[in-house]
């Protein structure tokens, strides 16, 4: 019983540390409710070295945990040992929760709570972030070939589930931080829970999860920083004048049939 309590306390510690990105950003930015269709973009598209601190720290810690000898792996070994020894009942909910933060952006917009970007812009940003995350996660997994705690494969580092979850949490934060910081807090809580369950299910070491979290956050930040250039050079044909393409989805129900209608203005 005592050992199980230790595991639970350790997981809550991880969740608390994973919420640092929201707290760090909330302390430096004022939030206000803006009811426009698309909030003008500004700070999220501007590179800042300060924004590298949190993801960089998580990635550094993850690297240290994984590269040290097993018996010196700090939390990596301590928690992993408890999970391996006591083999708690597994919960596979992390296969679903990894996608919840990013999906929440579209769900909120669908019910009328507008975020910072329109459908086209935020979808391109999410696509870029997903590309950066997938390329870096898979590149590291199959280059470093770190063995999973359950010895099922040699692709443990970093945690892909956690990277996707934190990528989505940062995406949710950027889109809705000016509406309410609680959306970002909820997203990061779900992302942290995803990482905790990866450890609890004996699929990842703590270092895998920490590095994955930092990598996911950094991938989203990178997508926001690069989007103005990508949008101008590729989607706007190099024209400085932004084309007005308004894309919107509207749910409908006729009493017998339901669906989603598409409206586009040029």
Folded structure, characterized:
This protein is mainly alpha-helical. Helix content is 60%, strand content 6%. The protein has a two-stranded antiparallel sheet. The longest helix has 30 residues, at 206-235.
How do the strands line up in the largest sheet? 1-2
So what's the oligomer here? single chain
Beta-strand fraction estimate: 5-15%
Helicity range:
55-70%
The biggest beta sheet is recorded as: 2 strands, antiparallel
Based on CA atoms alone, the radius of gyration comes out at 20 Å
- Judged by helices, strands and strand pairing, the structural class is mainly alpha
Secondary-structure element order, N to C: HHHHHHHHHHEE
Low-confidence stretches: 1-20, 23-41
- Ends: how far apart? 64 Å
Strand segment count:
2
Mean pLDDT: 77
Q: Sum up the overall morphology in one term.
A: globular
In short:
With 266 residues, the protein is mainly alpha-helical. Helices cover 60% and strands 6% of the residues. It has helices at 2-18, 20-26, 53-67, 75-86, 94-97, 100-110, 119-144, 160-176, 181-200, 206-235; strands spanning 246-253, 258-265.
Features:
globular; single chain; 2 strands; mainly alpha
Question: Layout of helices and strands, plus pairs?
Answer:
Elements: H1 2-18, H2 20-26, H3 53-67, H4 75-86, H5 94-97, H6 100-110, H7 119-144, H8 160-176, H9 181-200, H10 206-235, E1 246-253, E2 258-265
Antiparallel strand pairs: 1-2
